[in-house]
Design brief:
heterodimer; A: 161 residues; mainly alpha; two-stranded antiparallel sheet; B: 217 residues; 63% helix
């Protein structure tokens, strides 16, 4: 009586190689090696048939499932998530950033500019207008020029050497 | 100064009737996708309705928990909507969506893995410790199992696999991914893919044989 070849006589590496061949994952040179192994060892053929059988069985019996929730309820949950994600994404969108900058440039800069001028005019110690004129004059002299400003007449004269 | 910009339309504008007046079931997936890509959420809803069971089934195969699968399937639809513009029609919409849900599930499983260590059994299998203790068995696919019964039993057997083994098996057998694709997506070596697939199949064979014996006794 002839006994069936036992696949456990194969090494794990040989089994993995045969499995990869069944799965169509081998390059031609590796495939040739596996074919040689199968020709030399009958246990290899038995193992190949077992793997092929399992593969076919599992694929044939792919489990199916049905969403138990009603269509409207299932969709409403998805839609709510989409709207929530899109709402969160809005502040970081480029268009939104441009709009914020435009708004900032529209009123923020003039207000800050006016505040800066007021600070210069008033100074930390609350100088008068004539003192400010003298200060301007001095700094301009260092730069080889002369500026005279009369608050009373509303006139500024620049004299450049 | 007021600047005026001239706008030219390269194609005539087609005004779509409201969703209620459209015969959505008569439209193909491709037509629905093309229209939904312009931002019509009602058309996307029709796509969800058509493919929700398949997407949920794939999520369940990966997660094997109803709540987790439901959450993953819904998260996949949200991502599907966000990335709809990237869908070029290289595969069917259904295939594209199953890839999206697979990615969502893999992310979820990775997060879970941070808190749950792999079982000792898996670690033994990875190092070849138990390969001789689980003999390969033959299951005759044509032997007395009806399709529905086969599905249920495979579902039961998948439930008994570890998450690591089930993931590789599902990605290869049902999602049709090659070893190298599984390796890249799961973040494991090709050798580990081969090993996990091998042990997953052996365990499935053992479980299905056991079920068959129960049935015949």
């Amino acid at each position: 009586m002839k006994s069936t070849p036992n696949p456990t006589n194969l090494t794990v590496q040989q089994m993995l190689a045969i499995q990869a061949d069944v799965d169509g994952q081998l390059e031609p040179p590796q495939r040739s090696e596996v074919r040689a192994l199968l020709a030399a060892n009958p246990a290899g053929g038995v193992f190949r048939d077992q793997i092929s059988g399992m593969r076919a069985l599992i694929r044939r019996g792919e489990p199916t499932r049905v969403v138990s929730e009603a269509r409207d309820f299932y969709w409403s949950q998805i839609r709510r998530q989409i709207e929530s994600v899109e709402k969160m994404a809005v502040p970081s969108s480029p268009n939104r950033r441009v709009a914020l900058w435009s708004r900032w440039l529209g009123w923020g800069v003039p207000v800050l500019g006016a505040a800066a001028v007021a600070l210069v005019m008033m100074g930390p110690g609350g100088r008068s207008g004539s003192e400010t004129a003298a200060l301007i004059e001095g700094s301009q002299l260092e730069a080889s020029g002369l500026v005279f400003r009369s608050e009373y007449d509303g006139v500024t004269i620049h004299w450049i050497n | 100064m007021l600047h005026l910009t001239a706008v030219r339309f390269s194609a005539p504008i087609r005004i779509m009737p409201p969703p209620a007046q459209r015969d959505l079931p008569s439209l193909s997936d491709q037509e629905l996708v093309a229209l939904a890509q312009k931002g019509d959420m009602a058309l996307f809803e029709e796509l969800v309705f058509r493919h929700r069971d398949k997407v949920y089934a794939r999520a369940y195969l990966m997660m094997h928990q109803e709540d987790a699968a439901l959450d993953a399937s819904q998260a996949a639809w949200v991502k599907g909507w966000q990335r709809l513009a990237q869908f070029k029609g290289d595969s069917s919409f259904s295939t594209w969506m199953t890839r999206v849900v697979i990615n969502v599930c893999l992310d979820d499983l990775r997060k879970q893995k941070r808190v749950h260590l792999e079982s000792i059994e898996e670690m033994d299998e990875e190092t070849g410790g138990v390969e001789r203790q689980m003999p390969v068995v033959i299951v005759n696919p044509t032997e007395g199992m009806e399709q529905d019964e086969l599905r249920r039993r495979i579902d039961d057997a998948l439930d008994k696999l570890s998450s690591a083994h089930r993931t590789v098996l599902v990605l290869h057998e049902f999602e049709g991914l090659e070893y190298k694709e599984i390796s890249a997506r799961v973040g494991i070596s090709i050798g580990t893919v081969m090993s996990r697939l091998f042990y997953a199949r052996r365990k499935m064979a053992t479980l299905l044989q056991g079920l068959r014996k129960e049935r015949t006794s």
